[in-house]
Specification:
Blueprint: E1 2-8, E2 22-27, E3 30-34, H1 40-47, E4 54-58, H2 64-67, H3 70-79, E5 86-90, H4 94-101, E6 112-116, E7 123-127, E8 130-136, E9 144-152, H5 158-163, H6 171-175, E10 180-182, E11 185-187, E12 197-205, H7 212-217, E13 223-227, H8 236-242, H9 247-257, E14 262-265, H10 278-282, E15 288-290, E16 295-299
Parallel strand pairs: 3-4, 4-5, 5-6, 12-13, 13-14, 14-15
Antiparallel strand pairs: 1-2, 1-16, 2-3, 7-8, 8-9, 9-12, 10-11
């Protein structure tokens, strides 16, 4: 199962009821953070998921509402006892941004491993059990959408293992991916496992205009977390100018991508009552949830 927590749902600047943009995901005790706006570590403390096992911090882009919480979080992670390297991921400009933000945290007990991704093509990398993929999006500076996938191990097929005449003593080793030479044969994992099973897919997209390429990127996601900067369609011109999205545009993406559930986030500070626009949004995509700070959900594998 994949645990998801929206730590902050505000855009541009915090207001009393909203911290700024950040998302935390956890799987098998290891965690990834996407964006780190003001208030991120406060929400983390309230959530009580811990800090030590955050293995990567991923930035969509480098506007202040997505990065200002970063230096303080690094110190809190240091105080948690972490000494393993911490991976930092982002679009072009990452090295300069991290260098600037860490002037006030010059000494850390762990190494920062920086991975600067291209903003003109899809990139894929793996961190522990998380498979990360990024998609360039349309904003006023280089910006990435993120997809996090968890693969599900194929089910052990006892009948197949017996038909292949594989001794029971090798079953667990083969399930872990080990290759074994036995009686002149090469035994592999494929000889004891069944068909592939559906994993989990989470997509996160903020600070962009809708793009045709996003439909394929988010296709059949279990959860799609998308910006809804403006609730009213009357803000369409402003959304175009600032390269953001309306609630209705996020809902249309979710519908076209055939996702299971949509969370709206990254609200404008002027959007004080997002609930006023949820019913019209649900007419486009019914399973739409209004994001709020520390909204939590567990995504489970299907049987």
């Amino acid at each position: 199962m994949l645990d998801v927590a929206l730590l902050g749902c505000g855009g541009s600047m915090p207001i009393a009821s909203r911290y700024l943009t950040s998302l935390l995901v956890s799987y098998n005790g290891r965690m990834l953070l996407i964006d780190c706006g003001e208030g991120t570590q406060v929400s983390l403390k309230l959530l009580k998921w811990g800090f030590k096992y955050i293995d990567a911090i991923c930035f969509t882009h480098y506007h202040a509402d997505h990065v200002v919480g970063f230096p303080g979080l690094l110190l809190t992670i240091a105080n948690s006892g972490r000494d393993e390297p911490l991976t930092i991921i982002g679009p072009p400009g990452l090295i300069g941004v991290v260098r600037g933000l860490t002037v006030i945290v010059p000494q850390l007990p762990y190494e920062l491993k920086l991975i600067e991704l291209k903003d003109d093509k899809i990139s894929t990398l793996k961190i522990n059990n998380f498979i990360l993929q990024t998609q360039p999006v349309e904003h006023s500076m280089p910006c990435l959408a993120y997809k996090i996938e968890i693969e599900r191990m194929r089910k052990f097929d006892r009948r197949r293992a017996e038909e292949e005449d594989i001794p029971m003593e090798f079953w667990n080793r083969l399930r872990k991916g080990e290759k074994i030479h036995y009686n002149g044969r090469l035994l592999t994992q494929d000889m004891i496992l069944g068909e592939a099973r559906k994993g989990l897919k989470l997509c996160y997209c903020t600070d962009t205009r809708p793009m045709e390429s996003l439909i394929e990127f988010i296709c059949q996601a279990d959860l799609f977390i998308c910006e809804g900067m403006y609730g009213e369609d009357e803000f369409f011109t402003k959304a175009i100018e600032n390269k953001h999205m309306l609630f209705s545009e996020a809902a249309n993406l979710a519908k076209a991508g055939k996702v299971t559930e949509l969370w709206l986030t990254h609200y404008s500070p002027s959007l004080l009552s997002p609930e006023d626009y949820i019913e019209s949004t649900r007419k486009i995509f019914n399973n739409t949830i209004l994001g709020q700070d520390r909204l939590v959900k567990t995504l489970n594998f299907l049987d």
